[in-house]
Amino acid sequence: MTTPAELLELSPVMPVVVLDDVAHAVPVAEALLRGGIRVIEVTLRTPAALASIERIATAVPELVVGAGTVTAPEHAKQAVDAGSRFIVTPGSTDALLDAVAATGLPFLPGVSTVGEAMRAAERGCSVLKFFPAEAAGGAAYLKSIYGPLPGLRFCPTGGITVSSAADYLALPNVGCVGGSWLTPKDVLAAGDWQRVEELAAATTTLR
Ligand SMILES: O=C[C@H](O)COP(=O)(O)O
Ligand SMILES: CC(=O)C(=O)O
């Protein structure tokens, strides 16, 4: 099983994907893989999400598939049953993190403040999602907290682009960044898997 720290090393960018159509799941995953990406976070924001995770886990095992936008304790078991290999939460409550930890899967708890990061660390979580990254202070914020909290490592997500990713990836406490720009809604709706591959390929040299 991949550790949380290893999850951040799989690719410089962790694609955060919203799938409206389960038929898109495997083509999107294959396009990301062809573009050099090794990980995908499928957000539980659509009715197609769990079935999409299931299909990717079965058909594209080279890509490490995880469930994102896990916001309620009952989502944790659903994510496991679908075949998720990791879990991401946009924020952290005790009940949610208890349920997610109980799955035994590696997970990235979402935090946006120093206090939340310290609470997560008290629970033994030192690899975290920083969300919403740009709105919560961006790369400057993460740079500032490295001094007092050098043991924490982050996957910032939220408002990051191919242009701003490098600023984050240059920080010692950032392993990868998350972003939806590799899988834009209109590109998926058009079934333009070549474009997904190109957007993915453009990120593999960022780190
Ligand atoms: O909710 C936002 C996603 O987790 C990241 O999306 P974004 O890269 O479009 O900001
Ligand atoms: C922010 C994020 O990655 C999530 O929705 O879980």
UniProtKB/TrEMBL annotation:
Pathway: Carbohydrate acid metabolism; 2-dehydro-3-deoxy-D-gluconate degradation; D-glyceraldehyde 3-phosphate and pyruvate from 2-dehydro-3-deoxy-D-gluconate: step 2/2
Catalyzed reactions per annotation: 2-dehydro-3-deoxy-6-phospho-D-gluconate = D-glyceraldehyde 3-phosphate + pyruvate
Membrane-spanning residues: none
InterPro entries per record: Aldlse_KDPG_KHG (IPR000887), Aldolase_TIM (IPR013785), KDPG/KHG_AS_1 (IPR031337), KDPG/KHG_AS_2 (IPR031338)
GO MF assignments: (R,S)-4-hydroxy-2-oxoglutarate aldolase activity; 2-dehydro-3-deoxy-phosphogluconate aldolase activity
Keywords, in A-Z order: Carbohydrate metabolism, Lyase, Schiff base
SUPFAM superfamilies: Aldolase (SSF51569)
Pfam families tied to this protein: Aldolase
Keyword Lyase set for record: yes
EC top class named in words: lyase
PROSITE patterns: ALDOLASE_KDPG_KHG_1 (PS00159), ALDOLASE_KDPG_KHG_2 (PS00160)
UniProt-listed Enzyme Commission number(s): 4.1.2.14
PANTHER family: 2-DEHYDRO-3-DEOXY-6-PHOSPHOGALACTONATE ALDOLASE-RELATED (PTHR30246:SF1), 2-KETO-3-DEOXY-6-PHOSPHOGLUCONATE ALDOLASE (PTHR30246)
Assembly notes: Homotrimer.
The family this protein is said to belong to: Belongs to the KHG/KDPG aldolase family.
Record's protein name: 2-dehydro-3-deoxy-phosphogluconate aldolase
Organism name: Kutzneria chonburiensis
Organismal lineage: Bacteria, Bacillati, Actinomycetota, Actinomycetes, Pseudonocardiales
